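Internal QA ticket QA-208
Title: Verify multi-chain structure generation after dependency bump
Assignee: T.L.

Test input:
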Amino acid sequence: MTAELHTLMTDLGRRARAATRILALAPTEAKDRALREAAAAIRSDAGAIAGANARDMKAGEAKGLSAAMLDRLLLTPARIEAMARGLEEIAALADPVGRILAQWTRPNGMAISRVVVPLGVIGIIYESRPNVTADAAGLCLKSGNAAILRGGSESFHSSLAIMAALTRGLAAAGLPADAIQMVPTTSREAVGAMLRLSDFIDVIVPRGGKSLVERVVAESRIPLFQHLEGICHTYVDGAADLDMARQVVLNAKMRRTGICGATETLLVDGACAATHLKPLVEDLLDAGCEVRGDEATRAVDSRVKAATEADWSTEYLDSIIAVKLVDGVAAAVEHVNTHGSNHTEAIITEDAVAAETFLNGCDSAIVLWNASTQFADGGEFGMGAEIGISTGKLHARGPVGVEQLCTFKYVVRGSGQVRPG
Amino acid sequence: MTAELHTLMTDLGRRARAATRILALAPTEAKDRALREAAAAIRSDAGAIAGANARDMKAGEAKGLSAAMLDRLLLTPARIEAMARGLEEIAALADPVGRILAQWTRPNGMAISRVVVPLGVIGIIYESRPNVTADAAGLCLKSGNAAILRGGSESFHSSLAIMAALTRGLAAAGLPADAIQMVPTTSREAVGAMLRLSDFIDVIVPRGGKSLVERVVAESRIPLFQHLEGICHTYVDGAADLDMARQVVLNAKMRRTGICGATETLLVDGACAATHLKPLVEDLLDAGCEVRGDEATRAVDSRVKAATEADWSTEYLDSIIAVKLVDGVAAAVEHVNTHGSNHTEAIITEDAVAAETFLNGCDSAIVLWNASTQFADGGEFGMGAEIGISTGKLHARGPVGVEQLCTFKYVVRGSGQVRPG
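Actual output:
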């Protein structure tokens, strides 16, 4: 790392930290006004944002980016409007800061309360999806945190144009411009430098594919809210209603195959295999899903391919599913805890005892009874916009919204108490 | 690291992870029974524990350990009894596992609850204080976590003897022996190996002095609940009652100087310096405290030494205090946030507005109004025994008790819901 880059990044961190002093105390109205003014600025700047995006797209095409990457990079008028609306939706959320989580009085008369406060400075490292610039910054601002954004280099000009609108929103509300900063260089070394700013950044949120997250996990000296992978399971219990199981399994796998809550492995109880296995598998095959099964599953339809050991631990993010017979709910829990990624698992059953065994036994962020794993989403949970889903267990588990971007402090009010002894 | 050590440590981790499957679901009665039986075993093994400790003490003396280290290592009959009573007190705490933190129903009928579950496997790395073996293991067990303990090598035999009692407690309650494990070697490399067991350990708690914590922070690939330092401030505001200020300041500094909640810097508002500064400083001097002050402070008593810039950022853990005049509450907050360690700060004032400015403005885990900073302690907060105090902001902030050793999961109960769109 060059001395110049070190100075640049340290300065960014120092300015973010200074901004937190004001942000932490900023009234809800000021934060919401900044979000709404930024939304208005995005709308009025739509032409400039589209122009900057066209420049990124042209460079991306010349660089030979894949069609999927170009699609993520593209900002259509509808996507620009969605960014603006997203900021307005964040403005409409309840302010998490200042909420009293608990309060009690000690025998000596001291009144103690546990009060929500912002974390401080959040660093977001993401791929070339320019909309993340607005979404992530909006969530950080609402929760009273300063944001340092580092997007993929291919979206640099798009992000700069969005940043200009965000900065105008801050100014209109009288909030410091340093509340939202963007790393002003596309140098790859800047990510490494950012991951060592532990004096200035309280938590890093990597948003992107597995390789980006793995790099951040390996290099970071700062705590992370990370999403590694979603190897999600649906277990159809012996006491499952067949019609419900068919609908839920098909939705859990096929509604969208590329999201982290998509089911990757179907476990079927041996007790209902004779009646349930064939229709479940044929629904999937008929919908265009590749099925990789164990011996029993292969026996129900010749289109089923043989699963290998690796299939039980694979996140396909595609129209592929692994299917296995298990011997009851305890075996299903054992399979999930051995092969899963502690993300999201569902049981389909009419048996409340089996359901509780599964819900309690699976060591996962989200466990569902008679519902699709595709509900693993902060919006679907009614938590509002999310900056991501955490597969870690500390602090934030599952959807990471404005509440999870906060911490707390203990406020003690006394009348001159001293500690005896 | 030798292959042998790697195998040993991985095996320890694997067995701890396997034990979590049972511990997470263990009924409160089983955990409490194990704790009470372990307490009984410590009492009936008191002779054997004292014998093992005598062996450690003899080796420690031969090795030339300092008097302070030998005192920490020593297990008197009273200290052995305190360990047993500590386990009984943990048994009497409410079980944090299974508590519902929040629940709500979605428009589609899905009922969502956020339920407390154990973190999984906790690693504790501590110095040669054998009582930590019982205290830390007890807190992990109560919160449904498996524990991997690594104490200082000088206390190895004492810890082994305590472990034997803990293991008997587990057996009496029908809980797996692997719920509490001790690293079975005094090799220094074992700590490094433990800090890389990120597949098997969910969080590491380093307990000890700054050099131990700094080593763990530098090497760990596992999230930490760490305590770095407590540079705690007491600010005497212009509107402080002088008698109250004198009592609280003296207690905050001198009750015990070696604990993390001891005040290290006294800030006095220029507005009351003429009346308050001299009595506050003389109380401290008369109690045997060395006072290092700015120019104004040196003017009130010839015994005051000159403070250097380093004094504003020093955790003395001794009968020394730094004293400075500041220009009102905003300047006090600025000083605290610049020089402090985000631990514990107090304001003494009769002015509610100044108090709120201080309580809101200080970015610290604990902020007190008209009370001594020496209350920074889980027991004093009524939270029961603590495994330590965290100066981090994520997950656990302030006292780390059984609640902070847990995480949560989302449990969703539906009736066949699929996600539209």
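Spot checks passed. Chain B has two domains: 3-225+399-411, 232-375.
Status: verified.
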